[in-house]
Write a structure and sequence with these properties.
The chain is mostly helical. The protein has one domain. The protein contains three helices and no strands. The longest helix is centred in the first third of the chain and has 12 residues. The mean pLDDT is 81.
């Protein structure tokens, strides 16, 4: 099985590192999208995770 792109690895690591925060009641769907779905185009080499993809 091929290795995951580095951007995906970073998203997974971020989730595991902050898991308790993401499971809190005040962490909402919009914030989950911003934190995890919006960066997905970056996995195709369109920048890095420190870039705000909404400005791309």
């Amino acid at each position: 099985m091929p290795a995951a792109p580095q951007a995906i690895v970073e998203l997974v690591e971020r989730f595991h590192h902050n898991r308790e925060h993401y499971h809190r009641a005040d962490y909402n769907e919009t914030q989950a999208r911003v934190d995890f779905t919006d960066p997905l185009p970056l996995t195709k080499g369109q920048g890095d995770l420190d870039t705000d993809c909404r400005t791309m």
